[in-house]
Design a protein that fits this description.
Aldehyde Oxidoreductase, domain 3; seven-stranded mixed beta sheet; 38% strand
Length: 143
């Protein structure tokens, strides 16, 4: 069911969220967890992130990414969850999983999904710095 596979979550994501999702015919499960790190790209100390999302549109994009992954990589299934709200360093902000019969398709689909999510989903990130300042940051597919 799509509502179970694509979601916006309040607060950090449980890193065990993908336990027992592979079906009997799926021999591969590839996961990606995006974790809040303590340093910004410019070297400033980060104490946390705040995320906002246009939730309905984000989940619609997640479903579209899933459909495109199936077209590109065959019989794969995606799970995508993204957190909103305040997150601390070390907490999981985004989780993507891909299942497939074989590992190559699962790896490719998982990478495709996180890159597409960063590029297309209406989700915004604010970095909160140790000096008390904060700044909205653009999503980048290479981060």
């Amino acid at each position: 069911m799509d509502s179970e596979r694509f979601s916006i979550v309040r607060g950090p994501i449980d890193p065990r969220c993908f336990e027992n999702i592979a079906g009997a015919g799926e021999g591969a499960l590839v996961t990606f967890l995006g974790i809040v790190r303590n340093t910004a790209h410019d070297g400033r100390a980060v104490v946390g992130l705040s995320y906002e999302a246009y939730e309905t549109m984000a989940c619609t994009e997640f479903k579209a990414i899933d459909a495109q992954a199936r077209e590109r990589f065959g019989d794969v299934r995606l799970w995508i969850a993204h957190a909103v709200g305040d997150l601390a360093v070390g907490e999981v902000a985004v989780a993507v999983a891909a299942t497939a019969e074989h590992r190559a398709a699962a790896f490719e689909a998982c990478r495709f999904a996180i890159d597409q999510l960063k590029e297309r989903a209406p989700i915004w990130k604010k970095e909160r710095y140790a000096d008390g300042n904060a700044q909205w940051r653009a999503n980048k597919t290479d981060e």
